[in-house]
Specification:
Structural class: mainly alpha
Shape: globular
Number of domains: 1
CATH architecture: Up-down Bundle
């Protein structure tokens, strides 16, 4: 049962994503969005504003693109782990393309009164989805090199907190609705779970 728990988790994440997509496509104002947006509302020129504005840059395409390049070079030149390098590259490219395709299909307009510049459509959040995919793979690469379980847990929890903060920062900066973030996390989680299982399943056959 535990062996296949990832299937149940991935399925639940997909159900959540499709439920949110249906709600967004209905065009109705969502109480969840209003409540969470107010909860994480920040004023300009405050410490919270500066903090979240700094955090949100960690999920930008430039940062993730540069970070992905470094990871690919590390796997290629230093580790010579070509299978992991291929999965990392395909995983990042596929996640980004999928996110862009869904955004252009749903065409949800971003919230008004942005606290920072943002382009493109809103649903699902690329920072949340692609950020979760990227930082999950980076966490895996780091944890793979660590021997102690306690340190592995610390690294894992640290990256989870970072991804959550990036998601919250997009709400605080008023460039995404909370449902955009939740949908990005849900689809990103289902995607990375599937990617990891394919990586484990196909690895021995390819190598």
């Amino acid at each position: 049962m535990i062996k296949y728990s990832w299937v149940a988790i991935g399925f639940i994440c997909l159900l959540l994503f499709f439920f949110l997509m249906q709600e967004v496509q209905s065009g109705r104002p969502l109480a969840f969005d209003s409540y969470i947006a107010k909860l994480f509302s920040v004023g300009e020129n405050t410490f919270s504003f500066t903090f979240f504005k700094s955090i949100t840059y960690l999920g930008k395409s430039k940062f993730i693109g540069f970070g992905s390049l470094l990871c690919v070079l590390y796997l290629w030149i230093i580790k010579k782990d070509y299978w992991t390098m291929a999965i990392f590259s395909i995983g990042m490219a596929g996640g980004d393309v999928l996110n862009g395709w869904i955004k252009n299909h749903i065409k949800r307009v971003r919230p008004e009164n942005h606290l920072m510049e943002a382009a493109g459509f809103s649903f699902p959040s690329g920072h949340a989805m692609v950020g979760l995919i990227f930082f999950s793979m980076v966490a895996y690469l780091i944890m793979k090199e660590i021997k102690g379980n306690s340190l592995k847990w610390a690294v894992g929890i640290g990256f989870v907190c970072l991804v959550l903060l990036i998601g919250v920062s997009r709400i605080a900066m008023k460039v995404h609705f909370p449902t955009d973030i939740l949908a990005g996390f849900a689809l990103g989680a289902a995607y990375i779970l599937t990617l990891f299982k394919l990586y484990k399943f196909l690895g021995p056959k390819v190598l």
